[in-house]
# Entry
Amino acid sequence: EKKEEKKQEEKKEEKKEEKKEEKHVPVSLFKPFVVNESIKPPARFLIFDDDAAIGKTAPSLSSLKFVRGEPVEVGQGKIVVVFFWASFADGDFPVVCSVSQMAKRWPTIQVVGVSLDSSEEHIEKFTTKIGCMFPEIKVSKLEADFPLAFDANRAVRTAYSKVASLPTLNASCMFLVDQAGTIVWREQFSQAHNFTAGQFEVQIKRLVNNLPLIKNGNKPKTDSDEEESMDLAGDDDGMLF
# Structure
C-alpha cells in the first residue's frame, strides 16, 4: 500500500512539472503574414491588363544617385520593385512603411525608393526621421528598409512616366519588374488607397512562385470613350466623301 501511495505521489509531482513546462513554452503573439489573394480594389484604383506600362521594358536606373543602400538595376536576373516616393508627401508615409515591411517579407526581390525630391538634402533629412512616430498619420514608427536614391534632373521619373503614358508621376506609384527587366504590374497608392488594399503584393507572390499574375481584364470603355470614337469615325467619313 505504501508503495502504491508513493507511486501516486510521484505521478502527481510529474504532472505538476509538466504543467510548469507548458506555462514556459513561448507563444508567438503575432500571426504569420498571409497574402490575401481575394483583394480587389474599387474600380477607380484597379489596374487593367491593357495598362500602358505592362509588357514594356523597364527604363534603366543607372542615372540614380544612391543616398542610402546599395545600387539597384533592372534586368539583372532579379525581381525589382521601383517605388517612387517623396519626403514632402508625408501623408504617404504609411505607404513607405508598408513597402519597407513588404521588402522584409520577400528578401529575394530588390526594392528601390526613387525620390521625387528636388535635392539630396531632402532625402538625407528624411533618413533622420526614420524610427520616429507620426501619430497624426497613424505611423507608430517610420521605416524605410530599402535603398533610397536621388533622381537627378528627374530622368528616371520622366522615363517611367513616358513608358506608362502618364502626364506626370506621383509619389507612391510603384512598378513591378520581372527578372528579364519587363514591367509586369503598376499600381498607384495614396492616403485613399493604401498598399495593403491593393494587389501589388499578390502579384509579387505570384511572380516569385512562377505563377500567372492576376488578370483584371481590359479597361471598360466609358461613355466619353465611345463618343470620342464616334467623333473620329465621323471625321473620317467627312474626309472620304
